[in-house]
Amino acid sequence: MAVVEELSEARALLGELVSSASRAIVFTGAGISTESGIPDFRSPGGIWSRMEPIYFDDFLASEEARLEDWRRRFEMRKLFAEAVPNAAHRAIAGLVDSGIVSDVITQNIDGLHQRSGVPQERVIELHGNATSAACLDCGHGMGFDDAEALIEREARAPRCGICGGLVKARVINFGQAMPIDEMERAERAVRDCDLFLAIGSSLVVYPAAGFPLAAKAHGATLVIVNRDPTDQDDAADHVLRGSIGAMFEPLTVS
């Protein structure tokens, strides 16, 4: 493992690695979005240090938990709407457009990769997306404005207009099963890549955090780009530490 903290050196190495890759995968966590003004979940001062997560079983069992979950989603919607994709998001979108990056696997729920220009079909959202909702029973979609109106009118969490099931934001809560299709897509992408860029992730949340090590086991060069050390640094071929946006800025395609 080689740790690079000097910005110009990190930029140069990142450029070399990307230009020599034939099929790269990008894997992102909350750290890529903090520079867009979205706080992360696990660092000191992050979201989970200020409030306890709502578990999926609690959402199913408790109307109070459902209403609190929705209250948080509405707050996040405002935060996400005000956020703007940063240089790292834009650089990744350019790499996808150029064909160097085949897929973007993300733990984030903010939709900033899509807003930066990455096509939806190239984004694999392991933990869902906080910008839309769906019925847990039949899968019928519901917009946040409609959900908010139902809560105000009925004083309870929204129910599906088709089957009457509970409607929930398309976010994977603690204790909720990971999305099968997305996990399978990520596994296929990992098997086929020759460069795996893990960006802005603490790499502690499994099963998502298993993908960098799986890519390494399949022969890919593993690069970790993060502000702070991670538990997987020793397994990486290269570790780049510092501002993620600053490191990726020279790769940005305008």
UniProtKB/TrEMBL annotation:
The keyword Transferase applies. Pfam families: SIR2. The active site is at H127. The keyword Hydrolase applies. InterPro entries: DHS-like_NAD/FAD-binding_dom, NAD-dep_sirtuin_deacylases, Sirtuin, Ssirtuin_cat_dom. It comes from the Bacteria. It is an enzyme of class 2 (transferase). CDD domains: SIR2-fam (cd01407). Its EC number is 2.3.1.286. GO terms for molecular function: histone deacetylase activity, NAD-dependent; hydrolase activity; metal ion binding; NAD+ binding. Zn(2+) binds at C135, C138, C160, C163. Keywords: Hydrolase, Metal-binding, NAD, Transferase, Zinc. Gene3D superfamilies: 2.20.28.200, TPP-binding domain. PROSITE patterns: SIRTUIN (PS50305). Residues 1-254 form the Deacetylase sirtuin-type domain. This is protein acetyllysine N-acetyltransferase. It comes from Amorphus orientalis.
